[in-house]
Queue: 4 jobs
Job 1
Amino acid sequence: MHEPIVNHVEDYLTRSDSTSLPAEFTAHLVGCAECREELTAMEQHSRVVRILKPAEEVDPFPGFYARVLERIEAQRPISMWSIFLQPFGRRIAIASMALALMTGVYLFSTEPGTSPAAIATMNGSQDTLPGEDEPGFVLGSNVDQDRGAVLVNLATYREQ
């Protein structure tokens, strides 16, 4: 379709009898058979569309939007993380977190000995720690006494 026609096609298809078209449009239409045929076909299509247009606004059937959204969701690619949203996957995730928490607590609570008895054992010293000969001695019961034991062990350390 040529430029003089393209610029005014919409005006031609929606015109009323009182609307006049530019002179160059009508002159080109008289001289060009190709543009005339195309415009005639467009006019026929326009009439068919106007005939099929409902007289009043039509609302979609109930559930239309829900069905459209379901189809969109069905076409969405499945994520590897969606397994954790299903009941079985959620249970696995919770069990894994619980296992990790228990492992962390175990490792934290069994940290290699920094107690005076452990230091004495690492030093190879079988000497008694200060306060051990006292009745009812419990390691860790008296922080000052434990600090003293560590200092004594460090002061009496001998390399063998």
Note: The chain is about 60% helix and 0% strand.
Job 2
Amino acid sequence: MQVETALLFESLEQIYARVFRALSPRTRVSKITVEFRDHANANSRAVLRDAHLRVRITDLLETAPAPVQEALAHILIGKLLRRKPSAEIIAIYNRYLNRADVRHRLDVVKRQRGRKLLLHPRGENYDLQQIFDHLNQKYFAGSIARPQLGWSARPSRTSLGHYDPSHRTIALNRLLDSRKADTMVVEFVMFHEILHLKFGMDYKAGQARVHTKEFKAAEKSFERYAEARTALKRFLEGL
């Protein structure tokens, strides 16, 4: 209780100064600037240049309580110094971000400030709207309202698909719009993202869970599931 009370009377600059001294006592920091920025997401960052620590925090966290601000300080400075924060620190920060009211504010801000840059769903080899409609009828009896669909503006070797609940969009990696990608592979990736749309996020004990037991069970209902996973792996190895 005494620690939490003390935090209430510290400025953000004092919190960052104290955390930095604790993590790197030999590093000289002559000035600390902390400011809130109207980002389109919950991203924040810290940069150290010429002994000046500059911290830019999303304004979504402007009203966050002191323990959350301190947890963020540990996370940002830890990243700067390449030191992983403790599981307890990460849990404090994640519990706050996963609160229903904070998640709602984040979704609103993403819709207002963010932009989704997607290519037309009709690609050179595959039409995402046709694929979505086919899967929707086959597996969901047409019960899923079609979201905004499109190919990613940039190719990626780390993510083949993404569902964004804030903008209600499904984007597939443009690398899949290729003759090298079997139809079954493209459909399997789309099916996976439709399941994200259907099941959404599951929050338990302040933690966000995406691939729940229900999600994984539903994914296995995909026709030729094992074959599709093998084909997907083969496609990834060929990138």
Note: The radius of gyration is 22 Å.
Job 3
Amino acid sequence: MRPTIGVTVGYDERRADFFLLRQDYVRSIEQAGGLPILLAPGRPGDAPELLDRIHGLVLSGGSDVDPALYGEAPHPKLGKVIRERDDFELALVREALARDTPLLAICRGHQVLNVALGGTLVQDIPSEITGGLEHDPRRERWERAHPVAIHEGTRLRDILKRGTVSVNSFHHQAIERLGDGLVVSAHSCDDQLIEGVELGSRRFALGVQWHPEAFWNREDGFQALFEALVSQSRP
């Protein structure tokens, strides 16, 4: 039986009454042998029942996380926040971690994972990080933007089997203070921002700041991350 992988869905910021998800997430999971199930923002209290129906979880990219959730006032450069989505995904993450459900957190999802564990975020890299790299250069989704160093002895290094990778990049926020139990698995070579995290106390709980799903149909991508997630999610 193919393991079912839940994928969180965001809102179309141009039409608040529409949900939005790039097909790349679905294709990456299918190609890795999983059965994707879309999880649109709903009631946080439904997280346990939803987790009963899936074997693994992918947290997708999207809007900024509400800084009130990590005890900070909004920065002037803070983007659009959708508290309904934040609350729902935080509930999913905490339930998934409590159950040891395999989890892959991507871009915004990587930040949500950190906040769920008590961490904080840089709300705007260009205005808060002196000498910070341009992490949202508005390229094609699959174009590489900057190099990332992957730390030895980490699960991420074991999966990608490389010490340095060139990644795409579409974010103006980043992890600041690490959440409880998280270990940094990768950082940007140019400005040292955190680009990968993992939770060693769980079967599979990884976050990456870039978008590995954008390479699902391209050579030399990051499909190994989805293959590892699906493998760990098999019932």
Note: The CA atoms of residues 136 and 170 lie 4 Å apart.
Job 4
Amino acid sequence: MSKSEPALVLYYHPFASYCQKVLAALYESGTPFHPHLVDLGDEAARNAFYAIWPIGKFPVLRDPPRGVTIPESTTIIEYLDLHHPGAARLLPADAEDAWRVRARDRFFDSYIHEPMQKIVGDRLRPPGSKDAAGVDTARKTLATAYGLLEQELATAAWARKDGFDLADCAAAPALFYADWVQPFRGAHPHLAAYFERLLARPSFARVVEEAKPYRGLFPKG
């Protein structure tokens, strides 16, 4: 890497939802980074990535000057906010506010993102190995989460009311793909309005645009 290139390297795929969470944070803060697209279908690219992170899941951030490798989307965003703060801070300095942001981030990851991925993953299972009970549980979790968010977003513009932050970075891709597997817009107007604000946010709009060429990868129901 030359001196003119950004020090940070993000190993990712633009269509992967957790990668989109980190991309939204990077674009929101304006933090320079080098995007390294990982094609897991290519043996050489896959092996090179596994040499960096043997678990084999992205996103992964490398900070060569500090000699660290950071996996997991939330951890990456917190690391960026601590060591490479940009124009927009995604975690409040106040500890009381910060735990509330983290709690909301976990809500979107655990009750929107995870069940959405369960449904998508089941579509990729071969006949005879489908998990109908697991999908049913995932759909019930999504329905409950949609209802909670509908109530809370009636009086909030963003996930935590006070402005775009880590929790909104988590919400944007999770809701984007969740709406494809279990639409929420018709019955949840406040949640739908929040989602439209996310789509209009320049940072996430850029993420969506960059992912468009890969939409054919999404498994149909």
Note: The chain is about 55% helix and 5% strand.
